[in-house]
């Protein structure tokens, strides 16, 4: 049962990766595309790590650190992208 749940989480993570990448060919703005891509990649990567956590629970400290790092760094990247798209950043 654990193997099934683990592979299901990993599969869902891979689906999120491809789903985020598929929106890059839309006619939206570059920042909208980057936002969708970063959210989908973050969720996909977290699901893959949860799948690995189910598969190898002995490595839980490292995997939890990976989940926390993904959440923090991708949030900060979103703030940097948002700041860089404002008029204040362009005038400096």
UniProtKB/TrEMBL annotation:
InterPro entries the record matches: PhaG_MnhG_YufB (IPR005133)
UniProt GO BP: inorganic cation transmembrane transport
MF GO annotations: antiporter activity
Transmembrane segments: 6-25, 37-56, 62-84
Swiss-Prot/TrEMBL keywords: Membrane, Transmembrane, Transmembrane helix
Entry superkingdom: Bacteria
Protein name: Sodium:proton antiporter
Species, as recorded: Dolichospermum compactum NIES-806
Upper lineage: Bacteria, Bacillati, Cyanobacteriota, Cyanophyceae, Nostocales
């Amino acid at each position: 049962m654990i193997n099934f749940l683990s592979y299901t989480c990993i599969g869902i993570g891979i689906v999120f990766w491809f789903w985020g990448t598929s929106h890059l060919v839309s006619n939206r703005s570059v920042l909208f595309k980057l936002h969708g891509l970063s959210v989908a990649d973050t969720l996909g990567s977290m699901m893959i790590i949860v799948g690995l956590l189910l598969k190898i629970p002995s490595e839980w400290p490292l995997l939890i650190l990976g989940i926390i790092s993904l959440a923090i760094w991708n949030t900060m990247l979103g703030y940097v992208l948002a700041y860089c798209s404002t008029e204040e950043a362009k005038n400096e």
